[in-house]
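pasting for the record
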Amino acid sequence: MACDLQVFTIENSTMNILKKSFLILLLPLMAFTVVHKFYVTVTNIAYSEKEDAIQITSRIFIDDLEKTFKERYDVNARMATSEELESVDTYIEKYLKSKFVVYFDGKPQTYTFIGKKYDNDVVVCYLELPNVNLPKLKSISVTNEILTDMFEEQQNVVHFKFKGKKKSFVLTRENNKGMLNL
């Protein structure tokens, strides 16, 4: 009986060593597996009665926007660093105006790029359409093609909030328009 216990202890000990060795070998391999990146922007569009303006915030991953600027404008923006390109706001505004369009009753509108701030790995862009006569509007729509030409999997989530109505869209390269009827 003592011999059986000793064999069991040795086998159990050997098994524990094998398990630990397996984990030690497996963990580094798992660290090198490719994680699929999620490509998404989130844009909130709301009416401010106090300002009589449509206010828009758009959250875009910095690395995706920098890659786009490099390919599209051949610039290294180095956003959110001490070496940030001085004209980065100009590039952001130029890019947004080419990829994000707001329509009132089917007519394109001109918005103002107010500015940006950084939130970890995201740039938050602030846009505004002042002097909106909301009671006369029948619909507000957007075309959002931000990053869709760069990343096939890109999804642009848009949240509308007007007159107590809320509506959200997930826009893609193939389906890039969303509309809220007022």
